[in-house]
Amino acid sequence: MLGLPPIDPELEASLAQGLDEVEELLRESVSSSLGFVTEASRHLVDAGGKRFRPLLVLLAAQFGDPKAAGVVPAAVVVELTHLASLYHDDVMDEAPLRRGAPSANARYGNSLAILTGDFLFARAAHLVADLGPDAVRLQARTFERLITGQIRETIKPPEGTDPVEHYLDVLADKTGSLIATSGRFGAWQSGAPQGVDDVLTAYGELIGVAFQLSDDLLDVAGESGLSGKALGTDLREGVPTLPVLHARRLADPGDPDDVRLLELLDGDLSSDAALEEALALLRGHRAVESARADLRRWAARARETLAPLPDVPARVALEALCEVVVERSA
After folding, report:
1. 9-327: what CATH class?
2. 35 burial level (CB within 10 Å; 0-12, 13-18, 19+)
C-alpha cells in the first residue's frame, strides 16, 4: 500500500480488507444501464491508481470504529470525486496518458470525457447523500475548492503575486482539499473522538500538497510511470510546476545554461529533442533542490500536526506516509 514500510499486522489486515471493500463498491458505483457509460467510467478505475484518498479515509477511521457503516462509502465518495476531476483535468490539459494508459479524452473524445466525469460526480453525490447533511455540506465545500483551484490555476497569478505562493494556494485547493476531506470523512464516519477530525483534516491538506509537490519532482527527475503520466508531461504542456517556478526565480542571466533553459521553457517543447534538452537542464539546476526542500517542509508540517493524536499504529502509519511522499521522488 503506497510502499509503506512494515506496519502493525492487525492494522495492515484491516486496511487491506477495507480497500477490497472500497474496490468492490467503486466498481459497482461506476456501473450504468448503458454499457458505454460503464466502459468509459471504468476506464480510469481499471487503470489502477494509488487509492491514496480512500486509504486516508480508512486510516482516519482507525481512531474510531473502522467497521462503521459509512466508512467504505465515504472512501468511495472521495475516490469517485478524484476520478471525476481527472477526466476533466485531462480534457483541459489535452493529456494523452493517464496512469500509463491512454487518457479518456484521447480514447473517447473531449465531450464524452467531460460527461463521464460529470457522471462520476453524480454518483459521488448519490453516495454522500446517505452519509448525512454534514457530509453533503462538506462534499459541496470541497467541490467548490476543487473548482476554485482549477480556476485560479487557469487565470494565472494576479500582478504582483508571488508565483510560488500562488501555486501552493492552487495546490491546497486542487489537491489538498479533497485529501483533507478524506481525513475528516474517516473521523466522522467512524465516530472518532472530538478533535480528531480537525487534526486529520489539517494533516490531509498538508500531506496532499506535499504529494503533489512530489509528483512535480517526478515529472522532472523521476521515472516514467511513477506519477501516472509520461515523464515531462507538465513541462511539455507549460504547466508551471514548482521546479519550473524556482528555475525562473533563480535564473542567472549570466549563466548560458540558465538562459537556454528559459528559452526552452518559453518556447515550443512539442519535439522530443527540445523536451529532453529542457529536462536535462532542469535536472541539473539548483531549482530542483529548492523544490525538494519545499517538499520536505510540507511533509514535516504534516507530520507535526499528528502530535495531538494517541500513539497508536494508525498514527505511526500516517507518519510513515510523510516519509513515503518525500522518498518517492528522491
Report:
1. mainly alpha
2. exposed
